[in-house]
C-alpha cells in the first residue's frame, strides 16, 4: 500500500569549481546529489546540517578558495513515497525515469524537483514555495491513479 508522508530533511548547497566538487569527500552523515557541474546538494538530518556546512566548507576551500556552502534547508520541502506501489505511483506524477537507486531531477507534478530513490522509499524534494501544490497533487494522484481520472499535473 502506498504511503505518502511529509519528511524532514536537511539540505546543504555547495557551489565550487567542478574539480573541487569532484574531489569532495562527502561527510558520512550526508548524501551528495550533483545538480550541476558547479553545484552539489547534500542531504542530511536537519540537526547536523550546520556541521555538514562546516566540514564541506573546509574540504572544498582546500581546492577552491571561492567555494560557497550554505544551509538551504528552509528553502526545500520533502515528501516520501513508501510501499510496494511507490514506483507505480511515481509514474503518475512524472515522466522521469527512476533509477534502481540514486538521484534524478526534473519535473514532478509540473514543478522542478529533486528525486532520490532508495531501496525502501522515494524522496521528492521541491522548493518550499511549492509545498502545498506538491502535497495536494501527490495526494490527488494517489487517490486517482488512473490517467482518465486525473491529469498528470
Describe this structure in words.
The chain folds into 2 domains: 7-73, Alpha-Beta Plaits (2-Layer Sandwich); 76-143, Probable tRNA modification gtpase trme, domain 1 (Gyrase A, domain 2, 2-Layer Sandwich), CATH 3.30.1360. The chain has 4 helices and 9 strands; from the N terminus they run E-E-H-E-E-H-E-E-H-E-E-E-H. It has helices at 18-23, 49-61, 86-91, 131-143, and strands spanning 3-7, 10-15, 30-36, 39-44, 68-71, 76-82, 102-108, 111-117, 122-127. The strands form 2 sheets. Strands 1-6-9-8-7 form a 5-stranded antiparallel β-sheet. A 4-stranded antiparallel β-sheet has the order 3-4-2-5, covered by helices on one side. It is elongated. It starts with a strand and ends in a 10-residue tail after the last helix. Residues 147-153 have low confidence and may be disordered.
Amino acid at each position: 500500500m502506498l504511503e505518502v508522508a511529509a519528511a524532514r530533511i536537511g539540505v546543504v548547497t555547495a557551489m565550487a569549481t567542478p574539480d573541487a566538487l569532484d574531489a569532495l569527500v562527502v561527510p558520512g552523515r550526508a548524501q551528495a546529489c550533483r545538480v550541476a557541474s558547479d553545484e552539489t546538494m547534500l542531504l542530511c538530518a536537519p540537526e547536523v546540517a550546520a556541521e555538514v556546512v562546516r566540514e564541506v566548507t573546509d574540504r572544498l576551500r582546500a581546492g577552491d578558495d571561492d567555494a560557497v556552502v550554505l544551509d538551504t534547508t528552509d528553502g526545500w520541502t520533502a515528501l516520501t513515497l513508501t510501499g510496494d506501489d511507490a514506483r507505480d505511483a511515481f509514474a503518475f506524477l512524472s515522466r522521469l525515469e527512476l533509477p534502481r537507486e540514486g538521484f534524478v531531477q526534473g519535473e514532478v507534478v509540473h514543478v522542478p524537483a529533486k528525486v532520490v530513490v532508495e531501496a525502501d522509499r522515494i524522496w521528492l524534494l521541491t522548493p518550499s514555495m511549492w509545498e502545498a501544490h506538491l502535497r495536494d497533487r501527490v495526494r490527488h494522484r494517489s487517490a486517482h491513479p488512473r490517467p482518465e481520472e486525473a491529469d498528470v499535473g
